[in-house]
């Protein structure tokens, strides 16, 4: 299972970076979303995957007797997903506004803030 | 010492923003409340700073979960100083906004967003948890996105797209870095990570994680070669928004960098050489960029980049003396850059053009105002005894001591370029006659009394603060030395978070 996730994370990062390097605004935001999801999966994976071991200490014991699932990465991922969702939806709306105002999807044509001296 | 009230700056600015939201359609009420809240916020920051200065670090554990399991907040000298400086900037900007910000923007929630931005900054300065730092960063950037796009002019949207996409990328890198830190040490509490990271055997992975943090904070603080979003976006919003961005946003990236690279990723020669090299390149490319520009906002934007290089130079040298220089420069830079963009906004208004070619004759028309403008401009260059000078003395001395002559050269070259640029602005905008063909601005005499005071008070306030930094430099140096000593030996920070004696 872990090895599969590793490949998926690699694929998401590679795909995200490829999309970021394209000239289209729309593809750039897709790239950012893919990268964000790759990062979320990475956090999830890095807490070590443990199956069927809830992080609850048995009755009568003071500490864990066995390996247990780490609950923290899930909390982190949940926070990161929510924040990422908010930011990405803002970026999508922004891109739509930019497209409406400038009538182009080509990032190379977005140079009016750089060129005027 | 445990003190739950240290999160007051965060809670207070959140409450301020929420109360302001209830006055959504009443610009006058919002203006008055914002100034009032900024004053109270400054009071809280002063209280926190004095408490930390006299009684040492103040810690609180969220939900009473002991560190390293819960989220810790700590007010140390660096954090409380920066919190104080952001309150100073907020007060100046909120007074300036009341007269310079157009009604439409206020009706779209300018003031609540401004207070949310400051809440995020205060949180970032107080937290001692890496993931929590990420969350505060997101609060800061989402507020800055809203402020940057507010109004929706064509250039604003275009600048915002560049700013938003690169900042989202930086956040992703930050998140990946956090994931790796958690994987390596099993903790996210800064103090706990600082102890555990030394025992990690896989040094290669630690260095790679440091690299990810370098890219993430490098993009946020406009480090070479990741600064291109800054000159493309900072001149597009109104002057008040540019001022708060210039003063605080890149600096929070520098703060995070200083924190991480003095506590967690230390003692690596390669990283220190990389930082020094990038600092030198940032200074040179920012300075050269500023020379070429004609747009006042962009000139100052490139100067921000140039001076971010000075801050990183101290971190790259990494001796106590160099850190004194960095911290002193940070304190000076926040105040001066905020003031500079407010002044730039007023210069645009008076001459009717943001391009220095089309400006002119300011000195002949307004000699007293020019004298006031001269304070931030010359403080920036670092003409003794103004504030920029002392920090550079420390930085240059520290680089001589460690025999980093490349850095000495680039710091001097960077200061020279700054001098050249400011001299150019001074001669073009102040001494030269106003070109006949150019559009005429709004003369000072047509401003109403309220507008005059709303513009002059923040500029005077910030100028007095920067004069104090320059003329009472021994106080600031003792502050900076104390912070630098704490950064070089983080055991006090670690012990107070983990509750060890």
From TrEMBL, chain A:
TM annotation in the entry: 6-21, 28-50, 75-95
Main localization, broad class: membrane
Membrane topology label: Multi-pass membrane protein
Record keywords, A-Z: Cell membrane, Membrane, Transmembrane, Transmembrane helix
Protein name as annotated: Cation:proton antiporter
InterPro entries: CPA3_antiporter_subunitC (IPR050601), NUOK/Mnh_C1-like (IPR039428)
Organism of origin: Mongoliitalea lutea
Family: Belongs to the CPA3 antiporters (TC 2.A.63) subunit C family.
Superkingdom of the source species: Bacteria
Gene: mrpC
Protein localization: Cell membrane
UniProtKB/TrEMBL annotation, chain B:
Domain of life: Bacteria
Keyword Cell membrane annotated: yes
GO BP terms, alphabetized: ATP synthesis coupled electron transport
Cellular component aspect of the GO annotation: plasma membrane
InterPro entries given in the database record: CPA3_Na-H_Antiporter_D (IPR050586), NADH_UbQ_OxRdtase (IPR003918), ND/Mrp_TM (IPR001750)
Keyword annotations of the record: Cell membrane, Membrane, Transmembrane, Transmembrane helix
The keyword Transmembrane is assigned to this record: yes
Membrane-spanning parts: 6-25, 32-53, 73-96, 108-127, 133-151, 163-185, 205-227, 239-258, 270-291, 303-331, 368-393, 405-423, 453-473
Chief site of localization: membrane
Topology versus the membrane: Multi-pass membrane protein
Subcellular localization, as worded in the UniProt entry: Cell membrane; Membrane
Positions of the NADH:quinone oxidoreductase/Mrp antiporter transmembrane domain: 129-418
Gene Ontology molecular functions: NADH dehydrogenase (ubiquinone) activity
Family: Belongs to the CPA3 antiporters (TC 2.A.63) subunit D family.
Cross-referenced PANTHER family: NA(+)_H(+) ANTIPORTER SUBUNIT D1 (PTHR42703:SF1), NADH DEHYDROGENASE (PTHR42703)
Protein's name in the database: Cation:proton antiporter
Source organism per UniProt: Mongoliitalea lutea
Organismal lineage: Bacteria, Pseudomonadati, Bacteroidota, Cytophagia, Cytophagales
